[in-house]
Amino acid sequence: MAIRSGTQRRREAILGLLKTGSWSIPRLAGALETSESTIRRDLRDMAADGEIIRTIGGAAAAGYVEPPLGERMEQQAEAKDAIAARALAHLDDARVRTVFLDAGSTAVRLAERIRDRSELTVVTRGLEIALTLAHPAGPTVIMIGGEVSTLSHGTTGALSDHALARIHVDLAFLGADAVDTAQGLGEPSLDEARTKELIAERAGAVIVLADSSKAGREVAAWAPLPPGWTWIDERGEHTQG
């Protein structure tokens, strides 16, 4: 049976949205100004045709993967520079001596701004972060081992968990695939979420570095954060209770 033109256009629009990542059914319905029951029917038929992959409460495009770090470095560049500049102010506190700097494109921009801060000790799971900071006049750098992600170039897994359980930092700067004021940080895998949760537990304070496009995204796993964490985006700082 032929698909009506209106239905086809809506499904093409759904596929376009899903190519940016996972979306929930309510969010798709709102974006396309249609009912959730219509979206459910579309997703069922599109999944049967192999166009999409159903997730809990939503869907993602078949074959969607997170863009590699090199590509993400070029996305939202102005926003990431603004976030890194604001984050830098938190390192002016004389009490901050040991810092965790997460893997990710925004964290790289912050690392570039502290290459001469020899008084700091920086713990990181990001390969680019360690390479950026590893020079004679720079901070002391501690690299967390583990399995290396081919996309983020960050470490996760049992070895990473073992090391993180034995450290404490004054301040942790975390990246995220998604940010939710109630749920915390969203990540594409349980391993990534668990790593972020462990770091947050071992930090005196937690600051999330993520541009505003990360709000409201649907992802596979969430890492809860302790009360009082701060989210810095390109618009400013937001402290979460």
UniProtKB/TrEMBL annotation:
InterPro entries: Carb_Metab_HTH_regulators, DeoR-like_C, DeoR_HTH, NagB/RpiA_transferase-like, Tscrpt_reg_HTH_DeoR_CS, WH-like_DNA-bd_sf, WH_DNA-bd_sf. Residues 6-61 form the HTH deoR-type domain. It comes from the Bacteria. Keywords: DNA-binding, Transcription, Transcription regulation. SMART domains: DeoRC, HTH_DEOR. The keyword Ribonucleoprotein does not apply. Pfam families: DeoRC, HTH_DeoR. GO terms for molecular function: DNA binding. Gene3D superfamilies: 3.40.50.1360, Winged helix-like DNA-binding domain superfamily/Winged helix DNA-binding domain. This is DeoR/GlpR family DNA-binding transcription regulator. It comes from Brevibacterium permense.
